[in-house]
Write a structure and sequence with these properties.
The chain is α/β, with parallel strands linked by helices and about 375 residues long. Helices cover about 45% and strands about 25% of the residues. The longest helix has about 50 residues. It is globular, with a radius of gyration of 25 Å. The mean pLDDT is about 90.
Length: about 375
């Protein structure tokens, strides 16, 4: 090809690129205009809610918005991308109505914080606290609108501190759930052979126990309050490492030596969003309850038979020691359906007559698994 032809070809490519970028610029302005129009309508909705005494956060409505968008999507944008975009649009819209205060087990970039960001976006006002009990207390005292607490992990099972607080404060409701695929990483600013101490939260160390024993047998393990605290501690010692999230690595400026060191690939933690009220029906809901049965043979079986006879699918069951009576237990169950559904009402009314105590912890939309 001659030099003249090469120049002509280059000019055409540049002209095509310029034309395409001009289209992008126009679309960006259209998106900006539509986003602001959407926000203005959301602000009007906030005024209506305020006049009626309604809550700003509606898990049912936000789930409906996301499902409508995903159903209409013809690509090339993925579901993950669209969820992230609309999560932030809804986060900003909530802030225009009234900024939501959300308590979580801190510090920042702990997995509870990552779960809260996944649900409420960057615009919410976050309050970090030092314990799961403190999250419940902040919600109970109405110092915050919502709280995020871990409920169960696929590797380690129930989170005892959370179940204990539901027993202490049965008025607190679950209004939403977050399912987070948790990836642990070994963070350090030294080489693997130089690591003498590894810090992390007890549950994170437990979820990586096989990997750590195989790959880091020379290092001692140290439990700390959170994975984010572990990352911070690892930056202050030349021979220390942490098991923590990649977000914590970015926050504290520490290298990821090994990624995804959890022993099981499907290492999921389910979080409950707690509030003073639960969620409206969406059609794809769960309900959580806790109850005590009489201390006699067959009591639990009789309760579970109610769910079977009403064709209610159980999705989780846990027993937890009732500390006020030795040898007795509180049972936690969640199942498909909303407490306003006729067959759920029927089963709960029958169960209440058979139980010593029964509390509905809330109905909420079923969550899909998110990758942190």
């Amino acid at each position: 090809m001659s030099k003249k032809n090469e120049t002509g070809s280059s000019d055409k490519v540049n002209a095509d690129l310029k034309a395409l970028r001009a289209k992008i610029d126009k679309l960006d302005l259209d998106i900006l205009d539509l986003a602001n129009k959407r926000a203005a309508i959301a602000a009007q909705i906030g005024k209506v809610k305020s006049a009626q005494g309604g809550e700003v956060f509606s898990a049912a409505r936000e789930e409906e918005v996301i499902q409508n968008i995903l159903a209409a999507n013809k690509g090339p944008l993925t579901e993950v991308t669209l969820k992230a975009v609309f999560r932030e649009l809804m986060s900003a819209a909530r802030a225009l109505q009234r900024n939501q205060r959300v308590a979580f087990l801190g510090p920042e970039y702990s997995y509870s914080h990552i779960a809260a960001l996944e649900r409420f976006g960057e615009t919410a006002e976050y309050m970090r606290v030092g314990s799961i009990a403190a999250v419940f207390e902040e919600v109970n005292r109405k110092h915050v609108d919502l709280g995020v607490v871990p409920l169960e992990n696929s590797t380690d099972g129930r989170i005892a501190d959370t179940l204990d607080m539901f027993i202490r404060l049965p008025n607190i409701k679950i209004c939403s759930e977050i399912r987070l695929l948790v990836h642990h990483n070994l963070l350090a600013n030294c080489e693997q052979t130089a690591i003498q101490h590894i810090y992390s939260k007890a549950q994170a160390l437990s979820q990586c126990r096989n990997w750590l024993s195989k790959n880091m047998p020379h290092a001692s393990l140290h439990e700390v309050a959170s994975t984010a605290d572990a990352a911070r501690l690892a930056t202050s010692s030349p021979n220390a490492a942490a098991v923590a999230s990649r977000q914590a690595a970015v926050r504290y400026g520490i290298r990821v030596l090994f990624a995804n060191i959890e022993d099981y690939a499907n290492n999921e933690t389910r979080f409950a969003v707690i509030s003073n009220s639960d969620s409206a029906k969406t059609g794809t809901d769960k309900t959580a309850i806790m109850f005590q049965v009489p201390h006699k043979p067959g009591s639990l079986v009789d309760i579970l038979e109610l769910f079977k006879s009403n064709k209610i699918n159980l999705t989780w069951i846990e027993s937890f020691p009732y500390r006020q009576a030795k040898g007795e237990y509180v049972f936690f169950v969640d199942f498909e359906g909303h407490h306003e559904d006729p067959k759920i009402k029927k089963a709960l009314q029958a169960a209440e007559k058979m139980c010593e105590t029964l509390s509905v912890l809330g109905s909420f939309p079923m969550a899909k698994l998110s990758d942190e």
